[in-house]
Amino acid sequence: MDDKEQLQLAIGKRVKMLREEKGMAQQDLAAKCNIEKSNLSRLEAGGTNPTLYTLKRIADNLEIKLEELVIKL
Amino acid sequence: MDDKEQLQLAIGKRVKMLREEKGMAQQDLAAKCNIEKSNLSRLEAGGTNPTLYTLKRIADNLEIKLEELVIKL
DNA sequence: GTTTTGGTTATCATAAATGATAAAATAAGT
DNA sequence: ACTTATTTTATCATTTATGATAACCAAAAC
């Protein structure tokens, strides 16, 4: 597995963990972010290399700083 | 100007500032990151919405944490 | 003034993120 | 078991990031 895949898996896990901590459903977060729910599912599964803007919207709607979202990646 | 453009401009400025602090030329950083120098130029100018992997490579080669790269965005 | 050096801009191709939609799988409740 | 909610997976179209290359611009060196 290369660097990129590892990074994708890591951000996916992080989003999922934070979302669940907030007790938010995948579809709810997706809706708030104006992201397709299928897209968010892929992202959480590590199947995509998200853009900064996507990450920002996710952080905003999780009510955390972007720094916190990408911590330890 | 919308959110996305503002974000792009912000990350561009941040990369430029940090790169210059390190006394690194655009082409040097680009080369280290395996990014096209034209691509990095566009990124610093706010003309693109970079992916997480691109940001990670930039942070690594600036020898900073990804959190530090995306601070205050 | 002409070489470097660093940066910008333009163009085109390709890869990949995301949108849009639907179907299938899984979990949770009741 | 049945229903409901949630997530996953698949597919196709569209948009966009990036690669690749080249030409151009500006400033500084010499």
Automatic annotation (TrEMBL), chains A, B:
<dbReference type="GO" id="GO:0005829">
    <property type="term" value="C:cytosol"/>
</dbReference>
<keyword id="KW-0238">DNA-binding</keyword>
<dbReference type="InterPro" id="IPR001387">
    <property type="entry name" value="Cro/C1-type_HTH"/>
</dbReference>
<dbReference type="InterPro" id="IPR050807">
    <property type="entry name" value="TransReg_Diox_bact_type"/>
</dbReference>
<dbReference type="GO" id="GO:0003677">
    <property type="term" value="F:DNA binding"/>
</dbReference>
<protein>
    <submittedName>
        <fullName>Transcriptional regulator</fullName>
    </submittedName>
</protein>
<dbReference type="Pfam" id="PF01381">
    <property type="entry name" value="HTH_3"/>
</dbReference>
<dbReference type="GO" id="GO:0003700">
    <property type="term" value="F:DNA-binding transcription factor activity"/>
</dbReference>
<feature type="domain" description="HTH cro/C1-type">
    <location>
        <begin position="15"/>
        <end position="69"/>
    </location>
</feature>
<dbReference type="InterPro" id="IPR010982">
    <property type="entry name" value="Lambda_DNA-bd_dom_sf"/>
</dbReference>
